Amino acid sequence: MSAPAAIPDTPTFVTHLECGMTGERLPADTLQNLSPKGWPILVRYDLAGVKAALTKELIAGRAPNWWRYRELLPVRRTENVVSLGEVMTPLIPLPRLARRLGVTAEVIVKDEGRLPTGSFKARGLALAVCMAKELGVEKMAMPTNGNAGAALAAYASRAGIETVVFCPDDTPAVNMNEIALQGARLYKVNGLINDCGKLVGEGKATAGWFDTSTLKEPYRIEGKKTMGLELAEQLGWEMPDAIFYPTGGGTGLIGMWKAFAELEAIGFIGSKRPKMIAVQASGCAPIVRAFEAGERHAKLWENAHTVAAGIRVPAAIGDFLILDAVRESGGFAIAVEDAAIEQALKDVATEEGLLLCPEGAATYAAYKQALGDGRVKKGDRVVLFNCATGLKYPMADGGKPLDRHGSIDYSKL
Amino acid sequence: MSAPAAIPDTPTFVTHLECGMTGERLPADTLQNLSPKGWPILVRYDLAGVKAALTKELIAGRAPNWWRYRELLPVRRTENVVSLGEVMTPLIPLPRLARRLGVTAEVIVKDEGRLPTGSFKARGLALAVCMAKELGVEKMAMPTNGNAGAALAAYASRAGIETVVFCPDDTPAVNMNEIALQGARLYKVNGLINDCGKLVGEGKATAGWFDTSTLKEPYRIEGKKTMGLELAEQLGWEMPDAIFYPTGGGTGLIGMWKAFAELEAIGFIGSKRPKMIAVQASGCAPIVRAFEAGERHAKLWENAHTVAAGIRVPAAIGDFLILDAVRESGGFAIAVEDAAIEQALKDVATEEGLLLCPEGAATYAAYKQALGDGRVKKGDRVVLFNCATGLKYPMADGGKPLDRHGSIDYSKL
Q1: Mean per-residue pLDDT for B380-402?
Q2: Is B210 in CB contact (< 8 Å) with chain A?
Q3: Which of A58, B29, B204, B215 is 20 to 30 A distant from A83 in Cα terms?
């Protein structure tokens, strides 16, 4: 008995691209950034075709990585698949903390830190790189708070595509080192991620790079969509009651929402949806402010600051797609203080043995807060997204010195 | 269609324990450290029973984690399984470097950095903690160079077991922080890992802790054994030609060798074995020295030093088990310079987008060296073990400053 092929050689069912705001139809298999009207682009599939071709049993027999959903992904030719050993990220319940909170349903962390380059950014950037390869791109550029740049660098180097990455100059050294070691040309910019983004846009014509910024090309959403496909399959094609998602650019939230719609269209799930809950830090909460004001677009957040650098995103071009999904789902947007994030990180590590990243810890802090104000119930089965490995983040020093040449009182250790 | 259970509820086939040196039989289901004669203990199974109960098809239908091999693991009661979301670690080929080396067969990295706590230590410590829970242990202690301590802390905290961990005082901060955050009491010792190990042994009676040091309890080998089981299944139950394994305490090498014997006994593989190649750093190479001298035991390596802290292990209690396996397999032990390790780390990251840990990079350096001296051939299919995520390690700084307020010449970026 041989192991299943890592990449099933099946067709894609992509029919066309579509402006996320106006619905304007654009051709597939052409290089696209924003739509002609300046909005993010969505990828559309022949879902009737997928429904006829794909079964749950077929998927179950494939290798445990996101290429098992190949029919719902945009890559046409298998030779353009760029892989760094993707895995289905595990679901890890928090039984000890659930007991402490008096919760009766499961509280589950989906640990995205197990992906290549240690974060969920691998999903989006892998697909962006595959499609860039398929469409003949030779040079890609992006702004990053760290993890996206690392994922782009890794997948692009593997594909033989050159990369130029811009990050805020206070990005942690571990992220900068990772990006540079993995073959990108990295620039440290005196500004935030939206400032970096401007440089990418400005330099495009002169430098000849493809702008891979969040939602400025169509395929990162398709990669992030696999979080929703995977989660649904792992839960036996049952939806949880709520999903807490750390929200910067929001690609993952938008992607999961799209995944659920596609899964319903192919008959894999019913009409039940989880409440989509956008988690932000109180020092940078443009989506929360827009949600509470009943607006469809979010204003730029001035003087953004938070320990959770990955969600320090003052402006998101897909704000309306995030807010639409949150509202349609009956969910909400919620902001948490940095102190609550730090406490959550410690609680989950010490009690459950699970070291979250600050953005992942923010989702646990938000869950506690929403339990407290009644917006989620003790009987709700919730999924918290830990978007990256906790090992990438500087933390308080640990350990007490012990002199092995001295006299040690072991009864006190 | 529901997802397969994360932990299949099947029996274990453990019959007894056995001294790894003398073969003396010891009862299962009792707490054991070293054998009465002072040697590491091996776990034995009713392999005829396993053969009758287990098929490749049965395994293929189970969730993609090491509990799919439950019949070959020692935990009796499912409630004693402690899990942090294990995954089958991916096999990642290095096609660009293989081409550059003129190699005609696959060069594959098995990336153990995807496991809980970011290293292969999770395998051994998960099983040690499960069995400690099953046998009623309340407090565990161990010496560590970093990753083992992190894995013990995480799994034990999750199991509600107290931990005391000792590490050399020059252990990287990221490791110490991780251990402490995950709930262990951590002591920084002025010495190397064998000095830390002495403290664990000395304090045992007074402090009442269970000594979880490498090979001083029977179950870490059983956990590490899953590397061999998993690798065999992922390669379609075909053995590779050679396995390059970074060797400190050697539990994984011993465990894989045991796995292959058990797989042959249950009829899953034939008699072909990979050459087992123990990789050490030239600044700490006790196994290499013993291998070359034709000895069965290794002398303590004085003044051990290497950038690959995980293999800075001056003395290994299971030296004879490592050397036996290496020799029986037709393999060898090989030492690489720190400069070669650092170059290997850069080459694999830049060319293949894969950031190895220094110990993992040592296996690539060793592979190149062995290709050069003819001990492996260009047609040999080899597996290199990357034992931990590269993100845990301090690396050279990256990134060039860019002033967004200045005039930027994009044609030069």
Answers
A1: 89
A2: no
A3: A58
Decide: A322 and A290 in contact? Cβ < 8 Å: no
Residue A95 CB neighbours (<10 A): 14
CA B379 to chain centre: 26
Task: Give the domain CATH number at B369.
Answer: 3.40.50.1100
Whether the Cβ atoms of residue A116 and residue A84 lie closer than 8 Å to each other: yes
Residue A402 CA to residue A203 CA, distance in Å, equals: 55
Look at B353 and A84 and tell me if their CB atoms are within 8 Å: yes
Q: Which tokens hold the place of B179?
A: 């251990």
Residue A294: burial class (beta carbons within 10 Å; 0-12, 13-18, 19+): exposed
Which chain B residue shows the shortest CA-CA distance from A399? B186
Model confidence over B270-320: pLDDT tens digits?
Answer: 999 999 999 999 999 999 999 999 999 999 999 999 999 999 999 999 999
Whether A43 maps to a domain, the answer reads: no
Closest CA to A89 of B360, B386, B90: B90
Measured distance CA(A284)–CA(A280) in Å, rounded:
7
A181 and B60 in contact by Cβ < 8 A? no
* Cβ–Cβ contact B396 with A under 8 A: yes
8 Å CB contact between B217 and B209: no
B294 at interface of A, judged by CB pairs closer than 8 A: no
Q: How many domains does chain B have?
A: 1
pLDDT at A397 over 70: no
Q: Which two tokens stand for residue B89?
A: 């670690």
Do the chains contact at B203 and A413, CB–CB below 8 Å? yes
Q: Which of B66, B147, B182, B196 to mutate to test the interface with A (most CBs of A within 10 A)?
A: B182
pLDDT higher than 60, residue B36:
yes
**Residue of A168, A207, A172 whose CA lies nearest to A188:** A168
Question: A174 and A240 in contact (C-beta within 8 Å)?
Answer: no
> B interface mutation test: which of A142, A181, A397 has the most B CBs within 10 A?
A181
Residue B273 lies in a domain: yes
List, in order, residues 6 or more apart from B75 with CB less than 8 Å away. B12, B81, B127, B130, B131, B134
pLDDT score for B1: 55
Query: Is B15 domain-assigned?
Result: no
| Cα–Cα dist B187/A112, whole Å | 31
| Interchain proximity A400–B188, CB inside 8 Å | yes
One-letter identity of residue A93: P
Residue type, B93: P
**CB within 8 Å of B197: residues ≥ 6 apart:** B143, B166, B213
CB B232 within 8 A of CB B264: no
Q: Is B410 on the interface with A (CB under 8 A)?
A: yes
Structure tokens at B183: 């709930």
**To 10 degrees, the CA torsion angle through B113, B116, B122, B123?**
-90
DSSP B266: T
Residues 6+ apart with CB under 8 A from B162: B138, B139, B140, B156, B185
The candidate with the shortest Cα–Cα distance to B201, out of B17, B38, B27, B312, is B38
Beta-bridge partners for A168: A189
In a domain, B153, yes or no: no
Q: How many residues does this entry show for chain B? A: 413
Does the CB of A62 have a partner CB in chain B at under 8 Å? no
Residue of B nearest to A398 (CA): B177
In 3D space, the residue among B296, B346, B342, B289 whose CA is nearest the CA of residue B321 turns out to be B296
For range B358-362, the mean pLDDT: 97
* CA-based nearest distance A76→chain B, Å: 21
Residue-wise DSSP of B50-111: HHHH--HHHHHTS-SSGGGGGGGS----GGG---S---PPPEEE-HHHHHHHT--S-EEEEE
What distance in Å separates the CA atoms of residue B54 and residue B57, rounded to the nearest whole number?
A: 8
